[in-house]
Design a protein that fits this description.
Distance between the termini: 91 Å
Largest sheet: none
Strand content: under 5%
Number of helices: 14
Number of domains: 2
Helix content: 55-70%
Structural class: mainly alpha
Order of helices and strands: HHHHHHHHHHHHHH
Mean pLDDT: 78
Low-confidence stretches: 1-8, 336-353
Shape: elongated
Length: 353
């Protein structure tokens, strides 16, 4: 049947098409570029076996779920089930149901559904929005109510498929670059299906008409079945490249200045009376703490049991001394010859080993 496309009704949908058109063109160009132009990045590594098995399992579950919907959960239609024309009166439907009992489930040919089909606008809404909208919407009185009721279920269906797509095209499958294109395609399909169902012309008196809701539902589920299966055919995203280190140069320059200042500061602290007094107090307290810990008999006994004697020529002493020297050498910091010489203001000696 032809589509009725009045110009005033086309304007909001044209705005939506113009909204999605740049995204569609951008993703199409990116996909074409990735398929035709050789990549400068190193070839991507194959997925780990565990990840690949998990991905294939999810693809199988999604495919199985969609096939079950296509075979077992197809929308009911009383006219298609009874092979009756759309213009058949309700009395003719009752007659067919009496002559062929059981041809239609009882809830499909419910009395309130047959009563609603006596109205031509409701019968037109039946073609556009399906049996579920007419049978389940108890508060609907006008075609716009049925349209809003059907739109909610349709949106949920697309949202579930988008969630499946985000899962199957996640970063762990290296198909995350397909996510924007997938979401754009689903949004465009939702807008297109809504537009067709809203503006299609249903001629009840013609005797036969396309069941638009059922046809578009079948097309939608077929697309939902094929979209995830096309993900393994798309090229995987290149491996992440290391970030350039140019932004670290200012920080390295600042750190170098701080280290230079620390080297000069260490030699200038003993020349200040207040800082020298604080340094002397700190050294004395630190020496007392080290002596108390070093001469602790329990600590020495435990170290002997572990094979780590605390003598000055032992492995613990030598290892600690070597570690301290290496740290000071790597940092480029000065090492004082002696605390007394530092307090007297003598120059420090920088040992570079």
């Amino acid at each position: 049947m032809p589509l009725a496309i009045p110009l005033p009704d086309l304007r909001p949908y044209a705005s939506l098409v113009l909204l999605f058109l740049p995204l569609i063109i951008q993703h199409a160009r990116r996909l074409y570029h990735s398929l035709t132009v050789p990549s400068r990045h190193p070839p991507p590594q194959p997925l780990p076996p565990t990840t690949r098995r998990l991905w294939h399992t999810l693809l199988f579950l999604h495919t199985l779920y969609t096939l079950l919907l296509l075979t077992l959960a197809r929308p009911h239609n009383i006219f298609t089930s009874l092979h009756a024309p759309l213009s058949a009166p309700v009395s003719a439907l009752h007659t067919i149901l009496r002559l062929a009992p059981g041809s239609v489930p009882a809830h499909v040919a419910a009395p309130h559904v047959l009563r609603l089909l006596q109205s031509a606008p409701t019968r037109s809404a039946y073609v556009r929005f399906g049996h579920a909208a007419i049978a389940a919407c108890t508060y609907c009185e006008h075609p716009a109510d049925y349209e809003l009721f059907a739109l909610s279920g349709r949106t949920v269906s697309y949202a579930l498929e988008a969630a499946w797509g985000m899962l199957l095209a996640g970063g762990w499958t290296r198909r995350h670059e397909c996510r924007p294109m997938l979401l754009t395609l689903l949004a465009a399909l939702l807008v297109g299906e809504t537009y067709v169902l809203r503006n299609v012309e249903v001629d009840i008196d013609a005797g036969s008409s396309i069941m638009w809701h059922d046809t578009l539902w079948l097309a939608r589920q077929t697309i939902f079945l094929l979209l995830p299966l096309s993900l393994p055919l798309l090229p995987p995203a290149p491996p992440p490249q290391p970030a350039p280190l140019l932004h670290l140069l200012p920080r390295l320059d600042t750190l170098s200045q701080h280290l230079t200042f620390l080297r000069l500061q260490r030699s200038s602290i003993p020349r200040s009376p207040s800082l020298r007094a604080a340094l002397t107090s700190f050294w004395e307290q630190d020496a007392r703490s080290r002596t108390a810990a070093w001469e602790d008999p329990a600590l020495r006994e435990k170290a002997e049991e572990l094979g780590l004697p605390l003598a000055q020529d032992g492995p613990v002493w030598q290892a600690g001394k070597g570690a301290v020297h290496r740290v000071w050498h790597m940092a480029g910091l000065p090492m004082l010859k002696d605390a007394d010489e530092a307090l007297e203001g003598e120059d420090v000696v920088v040992r570079r080993r």
